[in-house]
Amino acid sequence: MVSASAAAASPNNQGDAQALFAERLTTIAKDTERLLDRLLASQPADGETARPARLLEAMRYASLGSGKRFRPFLVVESASLFDVPRQGALMCAAALECIHCYSLAHDDLPAMDDDNLRRGQPTVHKKFDEATAILAGDALLTIAFDILANEETSSNPSVRIALVSALARASGLGGMVGGQLLDLAAEGRFADAPKPMGEADVLTLQAMKTGALIRFGCCAGAILADVHDERYAALERYGTVLGQAFQIADDLLDVEGDAATVGKQTGKDAAAGKATIVDLLGVANARARLAALVAEAAEALSIFGAKSSVLAAAAKFVAERKA
Amino acid sequence: MVSASAAAASPNNQGDAQALFAERLTTIAKDTERLLDRLLASQPADGETARPARLLEAMRYASLGSGKRFRPFLVVESASLFDVPRQGALMCAAALECIHCYSLAHDDLPAMDDDNLRRGQPTVHKKFDEATAILAGDALLTIAFDILANEETSSNPSVRIALVSALARASGLGGMVGGQLLDLAAEGRFADAPKPMGEADVLTLQAMKTGALIRFGCCAGAILADVHDERYAALERYGTVLGQAFQIADDLLDVEGDAATVGKQTGKDAAAGKATIVDLLGVANARARLAALVAEAAEALSIFGAKSSVLAAAAKFVAERKA
Fold this sequence. Notes:
The structure is a homodimer.
Chain A: H1 4-8, H2 14-39, H3 53-63, H4 70-80, H5 86-107, E1 117-118, E2 121-122, H6 124-127, H7 130-149, H8 157-171, H9 176-186, H10 199-224, H11 230-256, H12 259-262, H13 268-272, H14 277-281, H15 283-301, H16 309-320
Antiparallel strand pairs in A: 1-2
Helix pairs in contact in A: 2-4, 2-5, 2-16, 3-7, 4-5, 4-10, 5-7, 5-10, 8-10, 9-10, 10-11, 11-15, 11-16, 15-16
């Protein structure tokens, strides 16, 4: 069976695919926002005692009202390849976004990147205070797993537990959090002087810090569909190269962007002396690498045929984004 | 079927029960330590990229080598009431301990309680640095859910997902983290001046901050056994009163203890002006309340007969502990 959304995702040309991508991204962002708004309501869930107003307000500030919702988009679109019920995909998308938003709140803390501005707004610890930002991050991280455990995510408990396991590994010690530690080490933040980074080191750091959540978002559709064959592997490959493309584009923006467009402080990586692919290859070669990754993303998706054109357009969007 | 451990838990008198409790606590602490040591090994799990040495070292520092492992004890002993396989109970115990240890690492941060000493040792941010302590806490919180999702915890995915849901709610916004926020608010840490706290406010704060994890530990046995009848309710009641007893005992220690015995800074609550049950009732009445809670704990357990004598002894231990 081909779902209505998948059938609609067969555009005549690349321009149509880009327009469809933009439309889907907007729709999924709105739907994710609405769902997060409900999940972060003041009424306590079963098994909760109360939801303290200040903490809830900080969690909502950290997660609602802005953000492209690119990771939720990946979950919903990868799920639509398998005709997974949309509500389940949105729940998984909301969980992933909670992890992403908690990581930003903690990353911005004075003891971490010490940022005052995020998406053009005061960071959580600037709007509230450091303790509240730490706790709001902890609570967003925790509620992500509560959301995945909810029956609304999937009627199949095995699917829900597979999502918990995959998201925990993508976001923890051996994934995103580990990548954040490597990132600080690369900036020379610890007693040991940072070692010069080769391309393999940079790729590992980035595969963990930003790649792991993107890869999870791409694989989530297959996990939700309980599919573990070559289609899972195709999405994993797509997610891996998409993550690399995302990071190179980000590093190019860091070199070439200005704070007004990007909405956050730029030029920080160069100041810290940390290596990126752009540093190692130079801008021109990094752009060529980016184009190759976009092509590889499309190739990885070919197993899904025209259904996957919106995901292929997403890779192009990532490569070409200006903010 | 009565398991060997449950049969052994039928002592002749209270003295025997206390001795047996001490023995079980020691054994479970060792088994939990051994399991955490394995779960926090350097080899990445499937789906992880790498485990950065510094982060792993900080996670191990925060979770290994000390601690009474009282929460793991509750999980293993409540599970033994239902003859749940011990390895599954230990996995759940390890997950709960990861949550407990992460909360201590974050609680000790300069922006939170700003403690330099924990269990007589430098706190995580003193031993490492603030950023590493934040990330180690995040990673311990995350791996807790990875552990629950592991097949070793239960062969039944529905049981594993029920544990994820219950632990997330006990430890997040509407549980422990929410309680930490209320605790800081009670200390006057935010812009709004703290409101005078009545007994109900204090009980809510404590039911969240320390009670929720203890209650989860007590209910975990029933969840592992997939039991949702009056035995679950009995363990929930036991866990609730045990948590209250634990907190009153802690508050009495805070008033009467000294730093050498307790192994952390004492007298802090009085300095902050935050209300406790001891403040509201006075020491003598608080001691009477504590005795009544121990009796209620034993009564809640009566449904399990002699099998539960070690859990009843645990309530007495909590009430009488000196550190």
